[in-house]
Specification:
It is a single chain. By secondary structure, the chain is α/β, with parallel strands linked by helices. 32% of the residues lie in helices and 12% in strands. The strands form four sheets. It has a three-stranded parallel beta sheet. It has a two-stranded parallel ribbon with strand order 1-2. Strands 3-4 form a two-stranded antiparallel sheet. Helix 3 links the parallel strand 5 and strand 6. The radius of gyration is 23 Å and the shape is elongated. Bound molecules: S-adenosyl-L-homocysteine. S-adenosyl-L-homocysteine binds next to strand 5.
Length: 241
């Protein structure tokens, strides 16, 4: 983790399940201050944008030095180097699963108007976005990435199943959840969920998940209908000529 605000970490990642797992050593976080790699006497990390315009840009030389200092010999050479960036590829659960199964990424948090393009290229940074809106810095975005990864690590969540049956794992949003009381302000829990018939419950949940995905996320639904998607995996040539 490279940031101009290391004091922001672990922040919310120090609470709840991620926090317990952090305390017990199931994962680790090192927040390094980019400013430690500044070389001038003012310890400056940014400068005005070439070509003019508002704001400041993080200097390529300072950030490259910070990346090189973080890549100590004991670090895996092949670890992903992510740059939190609204221009990046939107984060997906599929990428989260990959990251959680990998060696643990180096994450660079931007600030100001962004960072010098040349360091992105020279250090092979993978730009990752957490959505189509602009934050003031990469730290909260990095926390989102880390939180999504950490909860998938073995031993972090109570039951492994809850990580595999939830939203996006099958390209669908999750079905509605209910718990006690059986009646809340005149609303009952759908009867089928109290039937004890596991096959019927599973079918109901699948139908609910499909209806919800269709209604709320036509983009996700359409992606399921592509040739490689599950809906096309029916036997071909079933009609006779
Ligand atoms: N001028 C830039 C925005 C800079 S915001 C632009 O228009 O693209 C400052 C920093 O916040 C970025 O360098 C990035 O690290 C972080 N950031 C802002 N929005 C983000 C998002 N949606 N996803 C990931 N990181 C983001």
């Amino acid at each position: 983790m490279l940031t101009l605000f290391p004091e922001m970490f672990p922040g919310p990642l120090g609470a709840s399940l991620a926090g317990k797992a952090l305390a017990s050593g199931l994962w680790a976080l090192e927040a390094r201050d980019i400013r430690d790699s500044a070389t001038d006497r003012h310890r400056s990390v940014d400068d005005t944008p070439a070509g003019g315009g508002p704001g400041m840009v993080l200097r390529a030389d300072v950030l490259a030095a910070a990346i090189d200092a973080a890549d100590t010999p004991d670090r895996p050479k092949d670890r992903p180097r992510l740059l939190m960036s609204p221009r990046g590829r939107p984060l997906t659960q599929a990428r989260v699963v990959e990251l959680a199964g990998g060696p643990g990424p180096l994450i660079v948090c931007g600030r100001f108007e962004g960072i010098d393009q040349r360091v992105i290229e020279a250090r092979g940074l993978e730009e990752v976005s957490i959505g189509d809106y602009v934050l003031s810095g990469g730290e909260i975005a990095a926390m989102a990435v880390i939180d999504a990864c950490v909860r998938l690590l073995p031993g972090v969540m109570g039951k492994l199943i809850s990580g595999t049956e939830e939203s996006f794992s099958e390209g669908l949003l999750e079905y509605p959840q209910y718990t006690r009381p059986q009646e809340f302000e005149g609303r009952a829990i759908p009867e089928i969920l109290l039937s004890g018939d596991h096959a019927k419950v599973a079918a109901w949940r699948q139908a609910e998940a499909e209806a919800l995905t269709r209604a709320r996320r036509p983009d996700l639904w359409a992606a399921r209908q592509t040739p490689s998607g599950p809906s096309q995996k029916r036997p071909k040539n079933t009609t006779e000529g």
